Amino acid sequence: MRRPPATVVVHGFGAEYVRQLEVRWVNVGRTVEQGAQRLLAGVEVRAPLFVTCPGCGVVPTAQPGVRDVQGARHRAWCPHRTAIDVPWAEVALGRTLRTQGVRILLPPQFTLDHFAGPSFRAALLLGLRELLGGAPDHLDVLEVHLPVDGQDRTALLLHDRVPGGTGYLADLARPSRVRELLTGALAVLRGCDCADDGLLACSRCLLPFTPPGLVERTSLSAGCGHLQ
């Protein structure tokens, strides 16, 4: 993500509206494969990358470096169609969105709680539903890293999915509206009794705003605890 200069430095919890930002997603390969460690946005990730032909873009039918005598995998116009040794290229895939967003700096103790990030993420979207009066389908939340006073800090980026932004998030430039968002989410969580049923969360509170991979780390109790 390309970050414009911050106008306010905050040390605990804080929210900052960003009128123009660039969000970039990078796909560095399948998670089931081994790959070299690479530094991406300040974070080390395992990146096997994708192997493709630099001439026509097809993927190898065998492991790179292993001869394929048929050569049928290449397009008819590919300059490497009849080559014995193809100079396979390793690439990452990506897409970019230019839009509007709100950066929410999280207190350092959030990184110590396994449930904090996913629960607070879902609570933000829940609060937006209460604030806007409808499902915030055009908004999403990403976990990002921000440099603050020379330290790497965890933050949540609430961003518009629509290129250029819809203008909804500009209202969160006012601290009073951010407080309304958080108190609205807390009111719903306090009124939900799914914890009495032995559930971490349910469809009446956080689960409608939780990606499938984060369900087991999303908790009503954690959401309430970090919103208070």
Mean pLDDT: 83
| Poorly predicted runs | 1-11, 65-71
Total strand segments: 8
Determine the N-to-C terminus distance: 30 Å
> What about the largest sheet?
4 strands, antiparallel
How large is the count of helical segments? Answer: 3
Short description:
Helices cover 18% and strands 28% of the residues. It has 228 residues and is α+β, with helices and mostly antiparallel strands.
What would you note in describing this structure?
It is a single chain. This protein is of the alpha+beta class. Helices cover 18% and strands 28% of the residues. The strands form 3 sheets. The protein has a 4-stranded antiparallel β-sheet, with helices on one face. Strands 2-3 form a two-stranded antiparallel sheet. Strands 4-5 form a two-stranded antiparallel ribbon. Strand 7 and strand 8 form a beta hairpin. The longest helix has 17 residues, at 116-132. The two termini are 30 Å apart.
Notable traits:
disordered N terminus; 228 residues; single chain; 18% helix; 3 helices; four-stranded antiparallel beta sheet; two-stranded antiparallel ribbon; alpha+beta; 8 strands
Itemize the secondary structure elements and their pairings.
Elements: E1 14-27, E2 36-40, E3 43-47, E4 50-52, E5 89-91, E6 93-105, H1 116-132, E7 139-148, E8 151-160, H2 175-191, H3 220-227
Antiparallel strand pairs: 1-6, 2-3, 4-5, 6-8, 7-8
